[in-house]
Design brief:
mainly alpha; Leucine-rich Repeat Variant; two-stranded antiparallel sheet; 2 strands; TATA-bd_TIP120
């Protein structure tokens, strides 16, 4: 597989920016699993992609982090522990969906490999608590015929944050 990794990697990266969520999830899983074949070479490339201007790309890269984490010991674990803070820094991202996928990745790490996030709880928990607040600016009214319905665009983010808080209680 190693000789083909660069071509596969480039092909996957071309589809990180897709508007179709299903495609981004498949690409993220493939990137995460492919990173396991050459962690020293590919993990830094994922870290660098976190600074990409595209929110779709950032959310795909963070989702890929979730697929690198398993409950069994792997050679990538020490490298993951070193860069987990970089992935959690995207909690400060301006885009709601990017923050939501960070919570999902954090929750996966806390559940499957608590050692990856244990040292980050002091800095991560305040950000986590901040994301549980209801934000009125994320509410919008949707008209459905003669009815008006209020939608909270931050609800998924808030639920994911509460899930992380629950899981992190078992980590410390």
């Amino acid at each position: 597989l190693r000789p083909f990794v660069p071509r596969i990697w480039d092909l996957l990266f071309r589809h990180c920016d897709c508007n179709e969520e299903g495609t981004c999830n498949v690409v993220a899983e493939c990137l995460g699993k492919l990173t396991l074949t050459d962690p020293e070479g590919l993990l830094p490339r994922l870290r660098a992609a976190l600074n990409c201007p595209s929110a779709l790309m950032r959310s795909t890269i963070v989702t890929a982090a979730k697929f690198r984490i398993s409950d069994q010991v792997q050679t990538i674990d020490p490298l993951l522990k070193q860069c987990m803070g970089d992935f959690l820094q995207t909690l400060q991202d301006d885009v709601l969906n990017v923050r939501r996928v960070v919570f999902i990745a954090f929750n996966s790490a806390a559940h499957n490999k608590p050692s990856l996030v244990r040292d980050l709880l002091d800095s991560g928990l305040p950000q986590l608590y901040n994301e549980t607040k209801v934000r009125k600016e994320l509410f919008r009214e949707v008209e459905m015929g003669s009815y008006k319905h209020t939608v909270d665009d931050g609800q998924d983010r808030g639920k994911a944050a509460f899930e992380c808080m629950y899981t992190s209680g078992f980590v410390s």
